[in-house]
Design a protein that fits this description.
Blueprint: H1 2-16, E1 18-24, H2 26-42, E2 45-51, H3 56-63, E3 69-74, H4 75-85, E4 89-97, E5 101-103, E6 118-122, H5 125-137, E7 142-143, E8 155-157, E9 163-167, E10 181-184, H6 186-191, H7 196-199, E11 202-203, E12 213-218, H8 225-234, H9 237-247, E13 252-253
Length: 255
């Protein structure tokens, strides 16, 4: 009888557990979510992580209510996505910064970059502009400061006559053998076993950086029980400690 009651209680508690479905890119986002799974479990939630390899589909899936939240983008990208797609998705927590870096398999120092070198950069507006800022920080180009989201046409000085190749962000690591330099978001770099601290020839400055990666939900869901539990778990001390220990400065907590 006691065994029966125990089984019944366990079945009841399992039945009460709710799923929280979150879309994420694999590294580091899905890894960070995996680390907070026990904390959510203790609050009665089963975390279901759906992995994506781009930035568009997770926002579409969230907008279409296939996800409860997503974790794969920074706020400037989200603002641009909402403006271009009519979606209403809001940031609810700033979680971490992934400093963008420039990588090469052909040169070991940025000073070795030849005239007319091919440079691969992301093709979405916010990350393209961000990548050009990285190159400008190294003195390779100068940009029109009066333009908010810059593209190669906004380069006002290009002394090495660099040639720019615009590619989808996820494909940039695979393009390294075809170009002289590629500016890559750190989630895609880490997924390709490239460490921003050790492998990047240029790395973005982390101070006062607006590109922290965020937890995002549909407008109106900012204060639901699920969102509150997820927000508290992903900005907990345990999450911060995991990020610091796992990535050793290649990913930086921003809470």
């Amino acid at each position: 009888m006691k065994k029966f009651l125990l089984c019944a209680l366990l079945s009841s508690s399992l039945a009460l557990a709710e799923n929280i479905v979150v879309g994420a890119t694999p590294v580091p986002h899905a890894e960070i979510l995996e680390a907070i799974t026990p904390e959510l479990k203790a609050q009665g939630y089963d975390l279901v992580i759906k992995e994506f390899n781009d930035y568009v589909l997770p926002n579409k899936a969230l907008d279409e209510k296939d996800l409860d939240a997503n974790f794969m983008q920074h706020e400037p990208y989200l603002r641009e996505f909402n403006a271009n797609n009519g979606t209403k998705i809001n940031a609810v927590a700033s979680v971490h910064l992934e400093p963008m870096g420039a990588y090469s398999t052909k040169i070991k120092n940025i000073n070795e970059l030849a005239n007319g070198a091919k440079i691969a950069i992301p093709n979405d507006p916010t990350n393209e502009s961000r990548a050009l800022d990285v190159l400008a920080s190294a003195g390779l180009i100068k940009l029109n400061e009066n333009v908010k989201l810059r593209t190669p046409i906004d380069i006002i000085d290009n002394p090495k006559k660099l040639v720019f190749v615009e590619l989808e962000g996820a494909t940039l690591p695979r393009a390294l053998s075809e170009v002289d330099l590629a500016v890559i978001n750190s989630n895609f770099a880490l997924n390709a076993n490239l460490n921003p601290l050790n492998d990047a020839l240029i790395i973005e400055n982390a101070q006062n950086n607006p590109y922290s990666n965020i937890l995002a939900v549909r407008a109106g869901d900012e204060n639901t029980a699920k969102t509150t539990a997820l927000k508290n778990a992903i900005t907990s001390q345990k999450a911060k400690d995991f990020i610091k220990q796992k990535y050793q400065g290649a990913v930086i907590p921003s809470f």
